[in-house]
Each structure stands twice: as structure tokens, then as C-alpha cells.
Write a structure and sequence with these properties.
The complex is a heterodimer of chains A (177) and B (194). Chain A contains 6 helices and 2 strands; from the N terminus they run αααββααα. Chain A starts with a helix and ends with a helix. Chain A is mainly alpha-helical. Chain B is mainly alpha-helical and 194 residues long. The chains are: A mainly alpha (177), B mainly alpha (194). At the A-B interface, helix 1, helix 2 and helix 3 of A face helix 2, helix 3, helix 6 and helix 9 of B.
């Protein structure tokens, strides 16, 4: 170690080593001078930078718009289904009935079908109520057990199939007697 | 990546915010020492863009701290210390960012060896010089970071051993030892080449 330090301290380099190091220094000098003198432009780097920025911004906007649209559409469909399945007051013969909301998750088509069924049920109940009130007004007050039974038979026979009409008539006849 | 023009107006660009005599003094420092700093960083990294960026950062940092420079050492020593620290920081941050693409712009040794003044040499002398330069580049690449720094400061920037010792914060004896080992490697490489 001591000898090595002494040699460097004296800087006694053999001719070939000295020449090699001198050439190396000339090489680095020439290269750095060429680097210092070269023309430099900012345009390519800026173009790449702006292109990347624009692409990133566009993709970001697309992602935001897409997610917002999907969220709004989802909530809108949920709201529509909720409104269609919500309990609604039904006026039947002066009374107010409330149709309970089914506690099930439904999609749009199911909700529409359920709405249609509900309207049909309301119509049926309303027409039944009208019919009952007409019957009551026509027949007057029921005063005896026989009359009450006849009325019940008559009501039953209204919903009897066609093939059993003869039996229904028999019931009507007995009521008339 | 962004390399603003540094040639004619570098000193003015860096010194723009400051005023007065201190600005003139620092402008003179930039004009005088920029080639040396760039040469050292270019030889150390073999990456033109990186060397220019680090040189620019070096003078920017020096300008910011110019007020606190007490003049205990020479301006060149101070600037070189900043440059060496910046280079260290750069490689350290590159190691931390291992997930990034590890593309480097370092020039191939053969390409680096092409830069030789033509002068009045014969073709044979040029070929010999090129081979010698390639051999030195090979050794420089294989040296440890500290040995490379010492070797380049001594033989590229031609700094005195005491200046090198002050720059990298080692004793003169240690600097000599590093230099000796580096020279032995160059010597071996040249012998192996023959």
C-alpha cells in the first residue's frame, strides 16, 4: 500500500499510461465541447408532454362522465321502480283502501307488470262494489233467513260455469218460491 | 427531459432574480466553471442529457446557496461537491424507483471513444489512441463510484490531490490510495490489450 501511494504521489507514470490518460482526457474534452455546442430545442419534449397530458385528460373525463351517467341511470331506475311499487290509496265504495307495497326488488318490466295488475284489481274491486250496491238497492233489505239464503245462492250462481247454469236456474226458482 | 438553452445565457438565466455585484460574481463563476462541471458529469455518467441536467441543477443549487458560501474552499471545490452529491442523489432515487423503466441514455464506450481531435495524427496513431481510450473507458466503468470520482477529478478535471480530498471529504492519503488502485487497473487493462 505504501509503495502504491508513493508512486501516485510522485505521479511517475510510464509513457504508455500517460499517453493513454492524455488521450482519454482529449476524448472527454472533445465530447463535452460538442455537447455544450449542440443546438437544443424544447419542441419534441413539449410535444410528447402535451400529447400525454391531452390523452390522460381525455381518458379521465371519459371515466368521470361514464361513471356519473351510469350512477344517475341506476338511481333513476331504482326511483321509478320504487314509485311504481309504492302503496297507493284506492277509493272503493266510499272507503279508502291502501295497497301494501311488496317488499321485493323488481326491475322495470316487473314493476310495470305489477302496476298493470294493480290497476286491473282496482277496476275489478270497483265494479264489484258497484254491482253489490245495485243489487242491494234492487232487492231492498233482507228480512228473513230464506231470503238471505236465496241471495247467497244467487251470488254463488253468478260465478258458476256455463255447464252448471241449469242448477243456477233451479236455485233462482227456489228463491222465487 | 426538458433542457432549456444553457449556452450563452445560462449565467443570466440563473442569476436573473438576483441583483448587483453578487450576481456579476456568480455569473463569472458559471462562465468559468461550467465546462469543468459538465466534463466531469459527462465522463462520470456517459449520459449527455443527464450530465446537462445535473450541471444545470448544480448551478441552480449553487446560486440559491451562494449567500451562504463562505469561501473556505475554492468555488470549484464547492461546485464539484454539489455536483457529486447531485449525482449520488440521482442514482439513489433511480434505485428507489425500481418499478420505472430502467432505460438509460448512457452512450456506448465505443461511441464515446469516437470523440478524438483529429490533429496531425496518422491513421495508425488514431487507431492506437482510440484503443487506449476504449481501454480507459472500460476501466472507468468497472471502478467503484469513489475510485471513479477520484480518477476523473484528477485526470479529467486536473484537480490537485488536496482539492480532491476537500471535495469528497476524504484524507489526502485515502485519495492517493484510490487513485493508485484506479491507475493499476488502467495499467493492467493496457497490458492485457497488448
Amino acid at each position: 500500500m505504501k509503495r502504491a501511494i508513493d508512486r501516485v504521489d510522485d505521479l511517475e507514470l510510464e509513457p504508455e499510461l500517460r499517453e493513454a490518460i492524455a488521450n482519454f482526457r482529449l476524448n472527454v474534452d472533445a465530447w463535452s465541447e460538442a455537447v455544450a455546442a449542440r443546438p437544443r430545442t424544447l419542441t419534441p419534449a413539449l410535444r410528447v408532454l402535451s400529447w400525454r397530458l391531452v390523452l390522460g385528460a381525455a381518458l379521465g373525463c371519459l371515466l368521470v362522465v361514464g361513471s356519473v351517467t351510469a350512477t344517475v341511470a341506476h338511481y333513476r331506475s331504482l326511483e321509478q321502480a320504487r314509485l311504481q311499487a309504492a302503496p297507493r290509496p284506492i277509493a272503493v265504495d266510499g272507503r279508502t283502501l291502501v295497497q301494501a307495497a311488496p317488499v321485493v326488488s323488481v326491475n322495470n318490466e316487473q314493476a310495470e307488470a305489477a302496476g298493470r295488475d294493480l290497476v286491473a284489481i282496482e277496476d275489478m274491486l270497483a265494479s264489484q262494489a258497484n254491482q253489490d250496491s245495485q243489487d242491494e238497492s234492487a232487492e231492498g233489505r233482507v228480512t228473513s233467513d230464506d231470503q238471505l239464503l236465496a241471495v247467497v245462492n244467487k251470488d254463488l250462481t253468478r260465478q258458476v260455469p256455463r255447464v252448471m247454469e241449469s242448477l243456477a236456474r233451479l236455485g233462482e226458482d227456489s228463491a222465487a218460491e | 427531459m426538458l433542457n432549456p438553452p444553457m449556452q450563452a445565457t445560462e449565467a443570466e438565466l440563473i442569476c436573473q432574480p438576483a441583483q448587483g455585484a453578487a450576481t456579476d460574481e456568480f455569473s463569472e463563476i458559471v462562465r468559468k466553471h461550467r465546462p469543468q462541471v459538465l466534463r466531469f458529469l459527462l465522463a462520470s455518467t456517459r449520459d449527455v442529457d443527464l450530465a446537462e441536467t445535473l450541471t444545470q441543477d448544480c448551478f441552480l443549487k449553487a446560486h440559491r446557496n451562494w449567500g451562504s458560501f463562505r469561501g473556505d474552499s475554492s468555488a470549484m471545490t464547492w461546485l464539484m461537491r454539489i455536483a457529486i452529491n447531485l449525482e449520488k442523489d440521482h442514482w439513489r432515487s433511480r434505485r428507489m424507483q425500481f418499478w420505472r423503466l430502467t432505460r438509460t441514455n448512457a452512450v456506448d464506450m465505443d461511441e464515446a471513444s469516437d470523440w478524438l481531435p483529429s490533429g496531425e495524427r496518422s491513421a495508425e496513431q488514431k487507431l492506437l489512441a482510440r484503443e487506449q481510450v476504449q481501454a480507459v473507458w472500460r476501466v472507468v466503468e468497472q471502478l467503484s463510484a469513489r475510485q471513479r470520482t477520484v480518477f476523473l477529478l484528477r485526470f479529467v478535471d486536473e484537480m490537485e490531490l488536496s482539492e480532491i480530498a476537500a471535495t469528497i471529504g476524504l484524507s489526502e492519503g485515502t485519495v492517493k490510495a484510490h487513485l493508485s488502485r484506479a491507475l493499476s487497473r488502467v495499467r493492467e487493462e493496457l497490458k492485457g490489450k497488448r
